Amino acid sequence: MGGEQGERFPDGTPPKDNAFNYYIELGKEKALQEIRQNFENSPDKRKNLPYHNTAHTQQVITDIETILGAIQKVDPKLITERKIKLGGLIAAGHDRIQDFKTVETTDGDFTIKKREKAAKNEENSAVKTVEFMREANKKAKKKIFSKQDMRLAEEATLVTVTDLDPELVIVQPNLSRTSSLVAKALALADLSNVGMHDPEEFMKTTFALFREENLDFLDSQHLKTRMIDWLKLQAKFAEGRQEDFKKQILWFPKKTQSAIRELFNRFGEAQYAIDKLSEDAKGMSLEELIGLFGYRAAS
After folding, report:
1. What single string gives the DSSP state of each residue in the chain?
2. Quick one: which H or E segment has residue 121?
3. Per-residue pLDDT tens for 194-237?
4. Mean pLDDT over the full length of the chain
5. Going by fewer Cβ within 10 Å, which terminus of the chain is more open, N or C?
6. Furthest-apart CA atoms within the chain: distance in Å
């Protein structure tokens, strides 16, 4: 859609009757282009990210629109079509900034190099989305996006911040019962690889995240243990994600909870798949694990 509109309006002038839709699609396109340029096609190979790339972003866009659409189907008064489209735009920019630092630790005689996310990635990503909204208003010479839209972009993007709790389960500390419906939906969509999709998708993200975090792979001599430990951690993530979902679903309007549960009905499959893989990995050779984690395909 973005390409078609670009051809139809080469001077960047949106159609008068649906300027909002034009800028929603343009915003998505610009965010994806920037992610592709910075994290898939960077001349510095270390900056190219196996997980936080356009594939993940496009999935989050699709999933937030699906979740909000399911809510709208239950009660159209809860979420407007405009808010659903706004949610898609916010999702497109939620990982637009991906700054990392290299952290070195020791494990016996080995030095481990890992990629660690910067503290304000989500905050800076939100700034980019708000900047786009302001620029759209300026170009259109009218209010396409309101201040409320901009506040929503900030709030929803910040709920995608993740952390590890004492049990090493990934949590979203900025998400609460009082978060907006769009923010709650984005929080679910950002971690939808567990529960909403085929377990094979969860496996793909498991391997991609390992490749993204571990910068020293080719130099390390004790990878098998680290790879198996990673699978165990992902099994814990899947278990914790299901428990978190049980809490988060209660923060949605009661009448919509069944519809959202129907979307996230694959937790058991994901848990079984990762538990089985964790067990099977113990009997694999390092060469088999290297292939399984996708390094050959990525190299």
Report:
1. -HHHHHHH-TTSPPPTT-HHHHHHHHHHHHHHHHHHHHHTS-SSGGG--SSTTHHHHHHHHHHHHHHHHHHHHH-TTTS-HHHHHHHHHHHHHTTS---EEEEEEEETTEEEEEEEE-TTHHHHHHHHHHHHHHHHHHHHTS-SS-HHHHHHHHHHHHTT--EE-TTS-EE-TT--TTS-HHHHHHHHHHTTTTTTS-HHHHHHHHHHHHHHHBTTGGG-S-HHHHHHHHHHHHHHHHHHHHHHHHHHGGGS-GGGHHHHHHHS--HHHHHHHHHHHHHHHTTS-HHHHHHHTTHHHH-
2. helix 121-140
3. 999 999 999 999 999 999 998 877 555 578 888 999 999 999 99
4. 91
5. C
6. 66
Q: Taking a C-beta distance cutoff of 8 angstroms, is the pair 265, 195 a contact?
A: yes
SS3 call for 68? helix
Where do the structural domains in the chain lie, given as residue ranges?
Answer: 2-298
Backbone phi and psi for residue 179, each to the nearest 5 degrees, phi listed first: -60, 150
Q: How confident is the model at residue 110 (pLDDT cuts 50, 70, 90)?
A: confident
- Encoded amino acid at 9, one letter: F
With 0-12 CB in 10 A as exposed, 13-18 as middle and 19+ as buried, what is 267? buried
* Residue 103, number of CB atoms within 10 A of its CB: 12
The domain made up of 2-298 has a fold known as Catalytic domain of cyclic nucleotide phosphodiesterase 4b2b (1.10.1300)
What tokens appear for 157 in the block? 């993007």
Structure tokens at 57: 């972003």
Q: What is the pTM of this model?
A: 0.86
